[in-house]
Amino acid sequence: MNKKATLLDIYKLLLQNLGPSNWWPGDSPFEIAVGAILTQNTNWHNVEKAINNLKQANLLTEEAIFQIDEQTLASHIKPSGFFNIKAKRLKNFVTWLYQEANLNLLNLQNYPLETLRPKLLAVSGIGPETADSILLYALNKPIFVVDVYTKRMFFRHGLIPEETTYSEVQELFMDNLEPNVKMFNEFHALIVRACKKWCTKKNPKCEQCPLKNLTA
DNA sequence: GACCAGGCACATC
DNA sequence: GATGTGCATGGT
Q: Are A95 and A35 part of one and the same domain?
C-alpha cells in the first residue's frame, strides 16, 4: 500500500468527522509539560484537577516546583493518581531544567530535536511518550507522539501488527509524512479522540469508526 | 464492585 | 530481552 497516501487519507477522514482539536490544553509550555507527566496512565479529567490544585497554590512554575518539597508537591497532585511517583518525576524534571536550561523550559527550544530528545529520555520518569509530548506540544518540535490509542486504532484497522513497538509506529508516521508541527499535533489529537469515541475496548470491532471506509 | 485511564521504572528469570 | 509488577485516584 501507499503508506503516505493512506496516512493522509486517515488524517483527512478524522479531521472531517471530528473537527480540529486545539491541543494541548494549557496556559503555558511548562503547564503542558507538567500535564504530560501527570497524565501517565491516567484519565485527563483527573489530571485537570491536579493542575488546578497547582494553579491555586501558585505552584505551576519551574521555580515553584523546584523549591517545593516532594511530599507537599505530592499532596497537591493527589487527584491524578500515582501521586508519590509523579511528585518524584516532576522534581526530577525541574532539577534537570535547572541544570540544563536555567529553570526555563523555553530555553530548550534552541536545541535541535536530535540532541534534546535523548536528554529528556535520560530523566528518570520521562519515557518516549512523555518526552515526545513535551517536544511536540510544549516546544513545537516536529516529532510524532505515539500512545496506546495510536497502536490500538492502527492494529484494529489492520494497518500494523499488534506487537509493533513505539519506535516502529513512530517511524511509520515520521518516514511517510513531512515534518510539520501543526499537522503532527492535530493528527495525534485526532487519533486519541477518534479512538476514545469509536475504538474502545467495549467496541472491539470499531463500529461507526470512519476508518472502516478505508479498510473495508 | 469491577474495570479503566493520553506510562514508566525496576525486579526477576 | 521478555515478562511481570507496583504505583493510586476518580469516573463509569
A: yes
